[in-house]
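Justification of resources, computational component.

The compute hours requested in this renewal are based largely on the per-chain cost of generating structure records like the one below. Each record pairs the submitted sequence with a full structure-token output. That output is archived, and it is also reused by downstream analysis tasks.
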Amino acid sequence: MHPSIVFLFATAVVFVNGQGIPIKTCPPGEHSVLYCPRVEEPSCVNSDVNNLPTTLGACDIPDCFCDVPTVRNLKTGKCIPVSEC
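The structure output for this chain reads:
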């Protein structure tokens, strides 16, 4: 195969792979989410993920949400079972 074709193919692969979905490195018990429009994280105050936040933010910024079946304790910032709210 011609070297310039190999170079173009390799460049295309790197370019396409670099267009991945942005993710956030989250602590254990949490996972990265990217909602557009952004939604509120389930918490002790609001356990429904479908509610829109009171202020709209950028769509391309990932967040960390607690793994199901836990929710965010807004006072401590920790993920806890709903029964401990």
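The CA atoms of residues 42 and 52 lie 11 Å apart. The beta strands are 30-33, 63-66, 70-72, 79-81.
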